[in-house]
Design a protein that fits this description.
With 67 residues, the protein is mainly alpha-helical. It contains two helices and no strands. The radius of gyration is 31 Å and the shape is rod-shaped.
Length: 67
């Protein structure tokens, strides 16, 4: 291994070290269960299912599908 190869290797190692330092200095993202999104999704699904059941109930009462 000659001097130019050694210099390129040292430069590459230096660049890798700076990239690792930059990644480690970034703030960590919160990786937990997303309660807010879960509750919003649950409420939306609940409202849609209630509207669907009321609609089916009214249609059943008017057209007597299930009698």
């Amino acid at each position: 291994m000659n001097d130019t190869d050694l210099a390129e290797l040292q430069d590459s190692i230096q660049r890798l070290e700076t990239k690792v330092d930059k990644l480690l200095s970034q703030p960590k993202k919160r990786s937990g269960f997303l309660w807010k999104e879960f509750i919003i999704g649950f409420v939306v699904v609940y409202i849609v299912m209630m509207a669907l059941s009321v609609t089916v109930g009214l249609l059943n009462r008017h057209f007597e599908f299930f009698h």
